[in-house]
Design brief:
The chain is of the alpha/beta class and 350 residues long. The chain is built from 14 helices and 7 strands. The protein is globular, with a radius of gyration of 21 Å. The structure holds iron/sulfur cluster.
């Protein structure tokens, strides 16, 4: 849920400034406030008059085109009002922010967590203060974000680190990655999710290159070698594979889950979604280990299914992409709510 468009955090790498998101004005300065967001949300959450009931699941209060806890939130309070509504309607909430302002809402977050679940995730490109000052000029420092994680953990709330974007040749070295993962472990994060940096042609790339030229001129050539103008702006896969290998090796060392662990979602999702999410996680984890996986395709096929998976428990192999191994895993999930194979892989025990 984007409650604001535009973001004065003004991260240099932010893809919210790419033309494809149609954010008007100067991205790091002009912020549109969705003043009717609450009214729309109240209508959307009202099940009366809806043909099919709302699917259970987390409501993600994040912001791809504007942090929901950026400074303008102090004035408008849209995020706080949203949390109050979600609390009233008993929805689980996942917050993704870079701001320490989220501490203001600890009362509401604790209240939601008493009946439903809450996850508070913070994004980092690394925990290096000097790099953050260049690339995240309007954001509380990494140290302040780490302290905020420790604060929420002390309040009994689950916290994650979104280690994204990892900035090529700057925060992707083994040393910087390891320090970041160690810092995250020290404050007790429940998981770390890693993602590379996209650079879409146009405003986003121009803005980023301008700063790169100023502070890291020697890296210009390397960047041109890995960003070849692909449609979604991602780096070439040789680079991404290398990054994910290093990340995986370090995460296995520190024994931190590389996806949101099942205890945080197993009671929240519908039966079908639980199976799909676990299969998708399995697919990611196996590929991270450089292995082949049938689970992504199976998850996709199951996402098209219109009936509860439990009604087909013994005909699962009639579904495209579901073989014998996948069938066994699905049967275990439906019967016990968990997959032991997945849990071991998530912990790096396999
Ligand atoms: S906080 Fe998020 S939305 Fe805001 S500028 Fe940074 S990356 Fe973009």
């Amino acid at each position: 849920m984007n409650l604001y468009r535009g973001c004065t955090h003004n991260c240099v790498y932010c893809d919210g400034r790419a033309e494809g998101y149609y954010v008007e004005g100067e991205f790091g300065r002009d912020v549109s406030v969705k003043v009717n967001a609450l009214e729309v949300l109240r209508r959307e959450l009202d099940s009366r008059g809806k043909r099919s009931p709302l699917q259970p699941g987390y409501v993600m209060v994040g912001g791809g085109v504007g942090d929901s806890y950026q400074p303008v939130e102090e004035k408008y309070g849209l995020t706080r009002k949203t949390l109050a509504l979600l609390s009233e309607k008993k929805f689980p909430v996942h917050i993704l922010t870079k701001s320490t302002l989220v501490k203001r809402d600890v009362d509401l977050l604790r209240k939601i967590n008493e009946t439903r679940k809450v996850i508070i995730s913070f994004s980092f490109s690394s925990t290096d203060e000097s790099i953050s000052r260049i690339f995240e000029p309007g954001v509380p420092s990494p140290q302040e974000r780490l302290e905020t994680i420790a604060f929420f953990k002390e309040n009994g709330l689950a916290c994650g680190m979104f280690l994204m974007p990892v900035i090529p040749f700057i925060t992707d070295t083994k040393e910087v990655l390891e320090k970041t993962i160690q810092d995250a472990k020290d404050v007790g994060v429940d998981f770390i999710i890693c993602g590379g940096m996209t650079l879409k042609e146009g405003k986003q790339k121009d803005y980023f290159f301008n700063i790169l030229q100023r502070y890291y001129q020697n890296l210009m050539l390397e960047y041109q070698m890995i960003y070849k103008g692909s449609q979604w702006g991602e780096a070439i896969h040789e680079y991404s594979d290398q990054l994910h290998q290093t990340f995986n090796m370090l995460m296995n060392l520190y024994k931190i889950p590389k996806r949101i662990p099942p205890e945080l979602f197993k009671d929240v999702l519908s039966e079908n979604d639980l199976v799909i999410v676990i299969l998708e996680h399995l697919d990611y984890l196996l590929k991270l280990e450089g292995k082949r996986s049938p689970f992504g395709y199976a998850a996709y096929s199951l996402s098209q299914l219109q009936v509860p998976i439990s009604t087909m428990l013994y005909q699962l192999q009639t579904i495209k992409g579901v073989g014998k191994t996948t069938e066994k895993i699905i049967q275990e999930i439906i019967k016990t709510g968990r997959s032991t194979y997945y849990e071991r892989l998530l912990k790096g025990d396999l």
